[in-house]
Design a protein that fits this description.
The complex is a heterodimer of chains A (256) and B (325).
Chain A (H helix, E strand, L loop, with lengths): L2 H28 L8 H29 L5 H6 L10 H4 L5 H22 L5 H29 L3 H14 L11 H8 L10 H14 L21 H10 L1 H5 L6
Helix pairs in contact in A: 1-2, 1-8, 2-6, 5-6, 5-7, 5-9, 6-9
Chain B lengths: L14 H12 L12 H20 L1 H5 L8 H26 L5 H10 L16 H21 L5 H29 L3 H20 L9 H8 L7 H19 L9 E3 L4 E3 L5 H11 L3 H14 L1 H21 L1
Antiparallel strand pairs in B: 1-2
Helix pairs in contact in B: 2-4, 4-7, 6-7, 6-8, 6-10, 7-8
Classes of the chains: A mainly alpha (256), B mainly alpha (325).
């Protein structure tokens, strides 16, 4: 296999990692629609989900182009099975209570925003353009999720306890965002995507600042789950796909 | 029509004030929140706007039921945006009602306790993807019939909320019709799904306008106050006249053999819905009443810690600010 072919494959994988993460998180967030604790939150969550779905269309659309086998964003979203998904494990965590949903969002946004910033410098102008557009949306996601984590962390005893518990539960899923494998290294060397560990200093600083203001404590635990980016997922993802893909699978000849 | 059978309140106010108020309404003036208004006008409006707001909020649920199963990314985004608009409509309407001296929390509690109602239509289940089409096409279509004239209603905040809402509702109806068109022109299974959705939603949509009120005293009072602009029968007729040709265009059959053009009246004849069913649904015996209220109750209860947390944080910030001064 030539080096060029390897890079094409890495590009497809890298784009699926981005697009699958926004797809899965957008889906999770959309599960709240109509059920949020206050009307304003219902509206704000729908905005976030809409942004993430839009970003999915762009990332997976480009992934399909890069792959060159005639698959579009919908084919990738609705017709792949669980082992083909490349999303981070963090985003497939179930919603839990509203605190877990918010904490998951914050931990992801704190990575997503600097990641997109770095992607704006991609050697691939298509990637740079998507990152610039998505970056404007995600700056708002981060502002909102950080603000709510602070307010709830430093709210009542109960809201504090719930946010701390959410942080403890989700913390072991954060490391994967900053871990590199061969695909990441190939993309970084080609200047297409940043090396994931290059995001670490910004993520650490931002998370430390927000948690401190929120009076929350990051767990000491060093162990981190991994595997989502390579297609090894938790049991939760299969159930999500069973719901999400059902119509496309049940009526494969239909157009919608 | 999201406000059904809103009972208008009698007013025991000074007859001179009442006459002057009626003269303003008759002259087409808008009544603003801080101006004098009869107690009956205020109470009736709270009931009507509140019911309308609750309908938007409960109305998120039957469509929200399909967001996670929408068949393409674009359909998912459109549906989510639509349900989000409904939350937004709820918000404007609660704000409009709040100008009359009731809080959103009080209205929410009245909804959960069953003291305040929401439209009967949202107690019907959404069983297939075609229902997303039928709800947009028929339910939003029926709502628009009522809401377009309400843009001219006498109460300023309500009329202004309606202007914004109507713009979005017509987009909703178009997206519903677009789904129906795709289904009706799709595979045999899709077409069957579309017909089935029309079969199930036809009569409940006609019920949205409420029973005939041409002889109702309450209705006459609300019409005099311009908070109800047309009779239920007028709106229902208009809806049928608009919808029958649309169904024909889709190649679908209205599930009522009595539907027939009547040259003389310049409209379609059609059968009345089963009003006994309507009254059962209003009483709480519709297919989804219990689930709808349970879902709202759960959101309210589960969200209490969140709302309390934000309030507590705001109080701490205020205290810190005072201490620093």
């Amino acid at each position: 296999m030539s080096v060029a072919l390897d890079l094409d494959l890495a590009l497809f994988e890298g784009l699926c990692r981005l697009g699958d993460s926004t797809l899965v998180l957008g889906h999770r967030v959309s599960e709240w629609c109509g059920h949020a604790p206050v009307l304003e939150e219902d509206i704000a969550l729908a905005n976030v989900a809409l942004d993430l779905i839009g970003q999915t269309q762009m990332w997976l659309g480009l992934a399909g182009e890069a792959e060159g086998k005639g698959r579009d964003a919908d084919a990738l979203a609705f017709r792949r099975d669980v082992w083909d998904f490349r999303n981070l494990l963090l985003v497939e965590r179930p919603n839990g209570d509203f605190g877990q949903t918010l904490m998951r969002q914050f931990l992801f946004d704190a990575w997503h925003q600097p990641m997109l910033k770095a992607l704006e410098a991609s050697s691939d102008p298509r990637i740079a353009a998507i990152a610039a557009k998505a970056g404007r949306e995600v700056a708002y996601h981060l502002e909102r999720s950080a603000d709510l984590v602070i307010r709830l962390g430093d709210g009542t005893a109960e809201s504090h306890a719930r946010m701390q518990s959410a942080l403890d539960r989700l913390w072991p899923y954060t490391g994967e965002m900053m871990m590199s494998d061969d695909t990441d290294r190939a993309l970084a060397e080609a200047g297409i995507m940043p090396a994931p560990d290059s995001i670490r200093p910004q993520w650490d600083a931002l998370v430390a600042e927000v948690l401190s203001e929120a009076t929350l404590k990051a767990p000491d635990q060093r162990f981190m789950h991994k595997g989502g980016k390579q297609g090894t997922h938790s049991e939760h993802l299969g159930h999500m796909l069973a719901t999400m893909q059902w119509l496309q699978r049940a009526y494969p000849d239909a157009t919608w | 029509m999201y406000a059904q059978m809103v009972k208008s309140e009698a007013s025991n106010d000074d007859p001179h004030l009442l006459a002057a108020f009626q003269a303003r309404i008759d002259a087409g003036e808008k009544i603003e929140p801080k101006e004098w208004m009869p107690e009956g006008y205020r109470k009736t409006l709270i009931r009507q706007i509140g019911q309308h707001a609750h309908s938007e909020i409960v109305g998120q649920l039957p469509e929200g039921n399909w967001i996670t199963r929408a068949p393409t990314l674009e359909r998912k985004a459109i549906l989510l945006a639509k349900v989000q608009d409904e939350a937004g409509h709820g918000l404007y309407l609660y704000c409009a009602a709040e100008t009359l001296g009731i809080s959103r929390d009080e209205m929410t509690e009245a909804l959960l306790s069953g003291k305040m109602k929401y439209s009967s239509i949202f107690n019907y289940p959404t069983l297939t993807w075609a229902d997303m089409g039928a709800v947009g096409w028929l339910v939003d279509g029926a709502a628009i019939m009522n809401q377009v004239p309400l843009q001219r209603t006498s109460f300023g905040p309500y009329a202004r909320a309606m202007v914004r809402i109507c713009k979005e509702e017509s987009f909703h109806q178009r997206q519903g019709y677009d789904i129906m068109m795709k289904m009706a022109q799709g595979t045999p299974a899709q077409k069957a799904m579309a017909q089935d959705a029309l079969n199930r939603f036809w009569y409940p949509s006609l019920m949205m306008f409420g029973p005939s009120d041409k002889d109702s005293v309450h209705s006459a009072q609300s019409m005099a106050w311009k908070i109800k602009m047309n009779t239920n029968d007028e709106l229902r007729q208009k809806f049928v006249d608009q919808t029958v040709p649309q169904a024909e265009y889709l190649g679908l059959t209205i599930p009522d053999p009595a539907v027939k053009w009547n040259e003389e009246k310049g409209g379609y004849d059609f059968s009345e819905p089963d009003w006994a069913e309507f009254f059962e649904v209003i009483k709480g015996n519709g297919p989804c009443n219990a689930e709808r209220i349970e879902a709202r109750q759960k959101a309210w209860d589960d969200g209490a810690w969140f709302r309390d947390g934000l309030m507590a944080h705001a109080a701490k910030q205020r205290a810190a600010k005072v201490a620093a001064e």
